[in-house]
What does this fold into?
Amino acid sequence: MGKYYITTPIYYVNDEPHIGHAYTTIAADVLARYKRHRGLQVLFSTGTDEHAQKVRQAAEKKGLAPQDYVDQLAASWKKVFSFLEVEFDDFIRTSEPRHKKVVQEFVSRLYASGDIYKGYYEGWYCFWDEAFFPESEVQERKCPDCSRELQWMKEENYFFRLSKYTQPLLEHFLANPKFVEPEIRYNEMLNILKSGLRDISISRSTITWGVPLPFDAQHVVYVWVDALLNYITVAGWLDNREKFTLFWPADVHLVGKEINRFHSIIWPAMLMAAGLPLPKKVFAHGFWTKEGQKISKSLGNVIDPLKVVQDLTQYTGNERVSVDVFRYFILREVPFGADGDFKDASLELRYSADLANDLGNLLNRSLPLIEKNFAGSIPEGRPDPVLGKEAERTVALVEEHMGDLAFSEALNSIWAFLGTLNKYLDERAPWRLAKEGKTEELGDSLFNVAEGLRFSALLISPFMPTTAQLFWESLGLDGEVKKAIWDRELVWGKLAPGLRISKKPPIFPRPGKENP
Ligand code: ME8
It folds into this structure.
């Protein structure tokens, strides 16, 4: 059995999660679920980055000790992700003892080997992004990333010899053109490498909220070094050799494009310094805007995923289904890697066209035909070879796209298949065959439609777990669809005649019609 280790960034817990955090985490969950369907042993981690200054400041504002504050927030983030049907295997928090141990051991080793040394730092620093910016990128003391005011930092620090890894990294990039995706992000990193790297400061002596340096307790470890190490903590670097051997290196780190440099340059250099293998891939996806505007608290346009789900529930009447609609929308609407704009009108359109119409209606019009003509049991039927070929082709396409993390293309392929099934139903017109008393053809057509619905349930399962399960149960199938192994199940004609269907109210009622 193969393995798959997938990670999301660990998030700053200075506020509640918004659509951006939900996006990366849901994408990772979809990939994790897909890999489980493919029979792989999956390790999927997400978590919280707790030692940032903005986290400490947020605690202060609430009048709480930082640890109490992060305890509250981490619990809340975990809850939100679970609400969004994210089934992580590990939720790492950087304030956990297992992680502090890893951070201290890691920096000790680099100190011992000479890759960490004491120096003096002076430069522009953004407390919000926890990042230094070279003089050349700074205009009017503003952060090039978030436009907040920069601080001039002047302190004795420990440094990591990042410069030493310029050449090895360059070689790694050239030998692995898919190390960073999409290509535009790879090229950005390559350009940074070509212009040469400077050593970076990896400790702070002016703050105390963080992991103390084991060889100089006056300093805490720079929050980014602390945070990146979460990926090996999760894999069991110090305390579980067997797990670490199985899962490390990670198969993919999913991140937003703004933190690509940390993951594609600094992190691999740290790993090289420690003699550890590099992750197989960093995928840096695009950013969501809202109706064309950057999402920010000050603009008051932050999209709260819980609110989106709540609003959708007015239509669906089922919160779990609404979560599926949200998951579907964010992954279908925008090719993974590109920037996306969240428009309420687009969400409404996708709901009514893709979900109520193409997907929901296929089930709604098929089941009553089986009920009426075959007393609610899946009829005997000959598997249609043309439809079967189309189904197999769809599976191959979905697998290819999922391999490329092209979620929206994978969904396009599934929806093309739904289109074929709807057309098949229209053309076979089982209602007419029934009238004409053509029982055998009637059985054939409804068997094949039901088989198509079973395939659809399996294929949408990573994206829309609740809907997939409702489809599964409607067809009278047992167990949990999320546990189905695709290679065993996606075999055209496997559906067993005689299963008793179970009709349910429409999953995606049309606004103003089925649901008031
Ligand atoms: O950077 N569109 O944490 P963070 C899409 N703690 N994705 C978005 C987004 C948007 N508008 N806004 C945020 C940190 N994201 C560090 C990471 S990892 C070792 C440490 C997502 O809370 C995207 O994944 O600022 C982005 O990279 C991440 O949230 C940043 O989360």
Remarks:
- The longest strand covers residues 116-126.
- The chain has 19 helices and 16 strands.
- The first helix runs from residue 19 to 37.
- The mean pLDDT is 96.
